[in-house]
Amino acid sequence: MSIERATWLGEIMGVAVQRQLDDYAGAYRWIAHVSGDVVTVHGTFEDEAERRIVLALVHAVPGAESAHVVLVPNPRPAS
After folding, report:
1. Could you tell me the sign of the dihedral formed by the alpha carbons of 79, 53, 39, 29, in that order?
2. Phi and psi at residue 34, in whole multiples of 5°?
3. The domain spanning residue 65 has which CATH number?
4. Is residue 79 part of a domain?
5. Pairing of strands 38-43, 68-73
6. Which of 46, 48, 74, 70 is nearest to 58 (CA)?
7. Per-residue pLDDT of the chain (79 residues; tens, 9 = 90+)
8. Does the global pTM surpass 0.70?
């Protein structure tokens, strides 16, 4: 597969992952970035159950079934 095709497919998968997350939780609660076979999701995760939901949502996207998913929590503001 050419580099251009791989980049193009990664961009399509990134859009699909972001749409999946936005459809579930509203726009931009979580931000996804795809690089190769790694999907990084930035955002606030309330608990372990919500982290599992995000993993399931990402892996439900065609092409991302076997992706390595990295969850990066946003720092919580000090109270």
Report:
1. negative
2. -115, 130
3. 3.30.70
4. no
5. parallel
6. 70
7. 566 766 777 889 999 999 999 999 999 899 999 988 899 999 999 999 999 999 999 999 998 888 899 999 987 665 5
8. yes
Residue 58's CB is within 10 A of a number of other CB atoms, namely 24
Number of domains in the chain: 1
Contact between 45 and 54 under an 8 Å Cβ cutoff? The reply is: yes
Residue 34 lies in a domain: yes
Residue 15: domain span = 3-73
Q: How far apart are CA 28 and CA 36, in angstroms?
A: 22
CB 56 within 8 A of CB 41: no
